[in-house]
Design a protein that fits this description.
binds 1,3-dihydroxyacetonephosphate; alpha/beta
Length: 306
C-alpha cells in the first residue's frame, strides 16, 4: 500500500454496514475529477472510494490517472480505497493490481465487450480467478450477479435473484473466501433514468438477509433520495456515482463559457484583445463537481465518519 490512508475497500464497506450508512464510490477520469472527489471527502470528513472504470482506458492511460489519485491519497487525511470499476477480464484486473489499487471489481455478468451476457458458469470462473489473485495481495474484490437496467424501460434487465446470489457467493469461493461485496440489480441503471425509476429496496432486504454481505448500488445518479435511503437501510453499503459528476461539470462549464462569450464580445467591441485562460474555465467546474459529490456523501450518511 502506497499510503497509510490507502485501505482495502472491504474495511470501509464493513464499517458502513455496521454503522448503517453507505460509502460513495466516485469515478475519476482526470486530475480535476480526482481533485474534486478528494476535496469533497476532506470537506465532509467522509471515508472514500475513488474509482477508475475500465472504459477510461479508451480515453487515457489509466496509469496517468492513477498517479494523480495516489498523490492525492498520499496527502489525504481520510481513509481511501482506490478501486477498479467494471473490470471485464483477468488481464485488465492484473494491470490495475500492478498499479497498486486496493480494490477491484470483476464484472463477470458481461463478456469483455461489455454487452454480451456471460453465462453463470463463466461469471463464476472469472470471478474465482480474480478472488485468488486479488486476495493474495490483500486487495478487496467486488463481483456482480444479475443484469442492471431500469425496470419497464431497458431490455435484458435481470434483477438479482436471492437464491442464485447465495449459490454464487458459495461457488466463487477460493480458499474458503468469497467476494467482499456484491453489486446487485435492483432497478438502477448507469446514466440518467427515463422518468421516475422503480427501485426495489424490498429485493435489497431479501438479498441482505440471505447473504449477510455488503451490497453495492450501481447507477446511483438519478435514484430519488428516499430510494437511496431505503436502499441503505435495507443493506446497500456502497453507492456508485459517475453521471452526477459529469452533469455538475457540464452545467457549470456551460455557465462559464456563456459568461466568457459575453466578456469576449465586450472586448471585441472595445477593440481590446481577448484573454484566454484554461484554468479560469476549468476551476469553477471542479468546484461544482466538489459540491455535487459532497451532497451525495451527506445523503449516504458517510459525512463525518472518516
Ligand atoms: P451513474 O453514472 O449512473 O452514477 O453510475 C455509476 C456507476 O454505477 C459506475 O459503476
Amino acid at each position: 500500500m502506497k499510503s497509510k490512508m490507502l485501505v482495502p475497500s472491504k474495511e470501509l464497506v464493513q464499517d458502513a454496514k455496521a454503522g448503517g450508512y453507505a460509502v460513495g464510490a466516485f469515478n475519476a477520469v482526470n486530475m480535476e475529477t480526482a481533485q474534486a472527489i478528494f476535496a469533497a471527502a476532506e470537506r465532509e470528513n467522509s471515508p472514500l472510494i475513488i474509482q477508475v472504470t475500465q472504459t477510461t482506458m479508451a480515453y487515457t492511460e489509466p496509469e496517468d490517472v492513477a498517479a494523480v489519485i495516489f498523490n492525492l491519497a498520499e496527502r489525504s487525511s481520510i481513509p481511501v480505497a482506490v478501486h477498479l470499476d467494471h473490470g471485464r477480464s483477468f488481464g485488465v484486473i492484473m494491470r490495475f493490481l500492478k498499479m497498486g489499487f486496493s480494490s477491484v471489481m470483476i464484472d463477470g455478468s458481461l463478456q469483455e465487450d461489455g454487452k454480451t451476457p456471460r453465462t453463470y458458469e463463466e461469471n463464476v470462473a472469472v470471478t474465482k480467478q480474480v478472488i485468488e489473485a486479488a486476495h493474495s495481495l490483500g486487495v478487496s474484490v467486488e463481483a456482480e450477479i444479475g443484469r442492471l437496467g431500469q425496470i419497464g424501460q431497458d431490455s435484458g434487465v435481470a434483477l438479482t435473484d436471492p437464491d442464485e446470489a447465495a449459490k454464487f457467493v458459495e461457488d466463487i469461493k477460493f480458499d474458503g473466501k468469497t467476494v467482499d461485496m456484491l453489486a446487485v440489480a435492483i432497478g438502477t441503471r448507469h446514466g440518467l433514468f427515463k422518468g421516475k425509476p422503480i427501485i426495489r429496496s424490498d429485493r435489497v432486504k431479501e438479498l441482505a438477509d440471505k447473504l449477510d454481505m455488503p451490497l453495492v448500488m450501481h447507477g446511483g445518479t438519478g435514484v430519488p433520495d428516499e430510494d437511496v435511503q431505503k436502499g441503505i437501510e435495507a443493506g446497500i453499503c456502497k453507492v456508485n456515482i459517475d453521471t452526477q459528476i459529469r452533469v455538475a461539470f457540464y452545467d457549470r462549464l456551460l455557465e462559464v463559457v456563456t459568461e466568457k462569450e459575453k466578456e469576449y464580445a465586450e472586448a471585441d467591441a472595445a477593440g481590446e484583445p481577448r484573454k484566454y485562460d484554461i484554468r479560469k474555465i476549468i476551476a469553477p467546474t471542479r468546484d461544482a463537481m466538489t459540491d455535487a459529490i459532497a451532497e451525495k456523501m451527506r445523503l449516504f450518511g458517510s459525512a463525518g465518519k472518516a
